[in-house]
């Protein structure tokens, strides 16, 4: 990421995952777009502090994103996101029509229950399954021990299972 051209390429590869993470943490598309831009700019401005090997820039960007989300929550109560805005953040996949329908129904329920989880559990799940970070990388982003990450992910899955089973 030595120059602006390399940074632009890096942004193209990672902007959507950063946006999705922030959107799922705060639940407001407009503010998520703003925070994503802030996170990407701060990543660029502070890139000299990060070792580029093994995804260092991405971990650094998610750490910045996490701090921006924390600041956002301190400053204002988040507004609810529209359903189509959340769907726009979901990775585009080529699905059959029946899969699209099932995905929307179950996805809506899952999003509701995910947003209802306590933040520390929701964040760990998103970093693991949406961003595909390892437990070690999540621990670095969240500034907690790996065992804490393992526990939070385990508890979050259990809470989600319980919440979703009550809907059935």
Please characterize this protein's 3D structure.
The chain is mostly helical. The chain has 2 domains: 1-82, Orthogonal Bundle (Rna Polymerase Sigma Factor, Chain: A), CATH 1.10.1740; 95-168, Orthogonal Bundle (Arc Repressor Mutant, subunit A). The chain has helices at residues 4-26, 29-45, 56-75, 83-89, 97-116, 119-130, 135-142, 146-167. It starts with a helix and ends with a helix. Residues 78-94 have low confidence and may be disordered.
How many angstroms does the end-to-end distance come to? 48 Å
The SSE order reads HHHHHHHH
Biggest pleated-sheet summary: none
What is the CATH domain class of the largest domain?
A: Mainly Alpha
What is the averaged pLDDT score? 79
CATH-defined fold name of the largest domain: Rna Polymerase Sigma Factor, Chain: A
User: What is Rg?
Assistant: 16 Å
Strand content: under 5%
- How many beta strands in the DSSP annotation? 0
Question: Looking at the structure, what is the overall shape?
Answer: globular
- CATH evolutionary superfamily of the largest domain: RNA polymerase sigma factor, region 2, helix turn helix motif
Tally of individual domains: 2
User: What structural category do the secondary elements indicate?
Assistant: mainly alpha
Assigned CATH architecture of the largest domain: Orthogonal Bundle
Number of helices: 8
Helix content: over 70%
Low-confidence stretches: 78-94
């Amino acid at each position: 990421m030595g120059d602006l051209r390399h940074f632009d390429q890096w942004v193209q590869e990672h902007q959507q995952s950063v946006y999705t993470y922030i959107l799922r943490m705060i639940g407001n598309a407009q503010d998520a777009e703003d925070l994503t831009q802030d996170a990407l700019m701060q990543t660029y401005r502070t890139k000299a502090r990060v070792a580029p090997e093994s995804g260092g820039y991405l971990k650094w960007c998610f750490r910045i994103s996490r701090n921006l989300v924390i600041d956002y929550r301190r400053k204002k109560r988040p507004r609810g996101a529209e359903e189509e805005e959340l769907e726009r953040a979901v990775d585009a996949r080529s699905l059959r029509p029946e899969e699209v329908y099932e995905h929307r129904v179950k996805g809506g329920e899952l999003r509701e229950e995910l947003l209802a989880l306590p933040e520390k559990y929701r964040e760990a799940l998103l970093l693991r399954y949406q961003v595909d970070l390892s437990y070690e990388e999540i621990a670095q982003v969240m500034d907690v021990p790996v065992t804490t990450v393992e526990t939070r992910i385990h508890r979050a899955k259990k809470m989600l299972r319980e919440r979703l089973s009550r809907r059935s």
